[in-house]
UniProtKB/TrEMBL annotation, chain A:
InterPro entries: COMM, Commd2
Designated name of the protein: COMM domain containing 2
Lineage summary: Eukaryota, Metazoa, Chordata, Craniata, Vertebrata
Chain's gene name: COMMD2
Pfam families, per database record: COMM_domain (PF07258)
Organism: Chelydra serpentina
Position of the signal peptide: none
TrEMBL record, chain B:
InterPro entries cross-referenced by the UniProt entry: COMM (IPR017920), COMMD4 (IPR037356), COMMD4/6/7/8 (IPR047155)
Pfam families: COMM_domain (PF07258), COMM_HN (PF21672)
Protein name listed in UniProt: COMM domain containing 4
Origin: domain of life: Eukaryota
């Protein structure tokens, strides 16, 4: 599968032919660093001063490189496909090899960063519980009513929410039974066959 | 095998695995590390640097240090949770393979701090909201738009409630007429008498 690059993208990457390969390597390192930790515009200024061009051009070059890497990693294109896609840009042999090396070295890490961007439901963080016995209320004295209070801590994209639930022991036992049944489903032949095929 | 300090359940596999890591430190150093872990369990914070220094002789990697802290936290908090006395804890740890001097040292630190630890665990138990303070004011209504001579006492009550989750206090105010207030007071007195018979 080939990457199709837009005209604008090719123009941005065209800047890379005007600098030597050490600089392209540096840009590649900056691009991966930005993918890991976020962009830092000050770096553009520093590089622009050193190379004597406007910082816009540097920014476009780095962003073009980043986009090339993320699109390649996202689609998990093979070496040959990547080389063919880059050939279109008309770079030198050395530059092509450099870009390929950059892609192969960082592909796994970029894929793991991209996997964190998928939408997520709230996930389990922790659980606190308490067992109480209600002995009396305003309307009725001399009672014995056990109750379990549960505080469920949920995590959603670094947002912590809590849910407070209360149940009597019979419902709790039923809940435990249902959850154990759900766990037991993993051991059925049907699930085992699917898991074996995924692996 | 059932262990009292695990709540009459099997000992978790990871605890079994890390017992051998604990045996690598000298028993004196283990007692000092226990002291630090106990401080952390009581909410006083942990001095990670000190623990690193104490484990440096045994040439622990950072994973081993974290495992040591985790297994000691589990053993000490679990023993306090199930109110295990230090002799039983010592014999159970020896059954798991911890050398005698190590087990004795650990249990001596546990015994010294068992009550304060249980108190701090009790304080950390699940509580929903709690009452922070109460303030009141008695007014006397002279007259109103409906009736020229009212002449009735009125109580203003303000409860400051501390939210269990976020720890912020919220005020909750209400006005109570004289009769309603008498009923409220009588009911609360009955509830208080019932609490006294229980404690």
């Amino acid at each position: 599968m080939l990457l199709v690059l837009s005209e604008e993208h090719k123009e941005h990457l065209g800047f890379l032919t005007q600098v030597d390969s050490a600089v392209v390597g540096e840009f590649g390192r900056i691009a991966v660093e930005f993918l890991r930790k976020g962009t830092n515009p000050k770096i553009y200024e520093g590089a622009a001063r050193k190379l004597n061009v406007s910082s816009d051009i540097i920014q476009h070059g780095v962003e073009g490189l980043t986009y090339l890497l993320t699109e390649g990693s996202k689609l998990m294109i093979s070496e040959i496909d990547f080389q063919d896609s880059v050939l279109v840009l008309g770079f030198s042999e050395e530059l092509n090899k450099l870009l390929l090396q950059l892609y192969l070295d960082n592909r796994k890490e970029i894929r793991s960063i991209l996997s964190e961007l998928a939408p997520k439901l709230p996930s389990y963080h922790s659980l606190e519980w308490r067992l109480d016995v209600q002995l009396a209320s305003r309307s009725l004295r001399q009672q014995i009513k056990p109750a379990v209070t549960v505080k469920l801590h949920l995590d959603q994209n670094e947002d912590q929410t809590t849910k407070i639930l209360q149940t009597d022991p019979a419902t709790l036992l039923h809940l435990i039974q249902q959850l154990e049944q759900a766990l037991g489903e993993m051991k059925t032949n049907h699930c085992r066959r699917i898991v074996r095929n995924i692996k | 095998m059932r262990f009292r300090f695990c709540g009459d359940l099997d000992c978790p596999d990871w605890v079994l695995a890390e017992i051998s890591t604990l045996a690598k430190i000298s028993s004196v150093k283990l007692k000092l590390i226990c002291g630090q872990v106990l401080k952390d369990l009581q909410g006083e914070g942990i001095d990670y640097e000190k623990i690193l220094k104490l484990t440096s002789d045994a040439k622990f990697e950072s994973g081993d240090v974290k495992a040591t802290i985790a297994v000691l936290s589990f053993i000490l908090s679990s023993a306090a949770k199930h109110s295990v006395d230090s002799d039983s804890l010592s014999s159970e740890l020896q059954q798991l393979g911890l050398p005698k001097e190590h087990a004795t040292g650990l249990c001596r630190s546990y015994e010294e701090k068992q009550s304060p630890l249980q108190d701090s665990l009790r304080a950390r138990s699940l509580r929903l909201n709690r009452l922070d303070s109460v303030s009141w004011r008695v007014d006397h209504t002279l007259s109103s738009s409906e009736l020229q001579q009212v002449n009735e006492p009125l109580v203003h009550l303000k409860f400051t409630v501390r939210d269990g989750d976020r720890g912020v206090t919220e005020p909750f105010a209400m006005t109570v007429s004289a009769e309603k207030f008498r009923v409220l007071l009588a009911e609360l007195r009955q509830a208080h008498a019932m609490m006294k018979t229980l404690s």
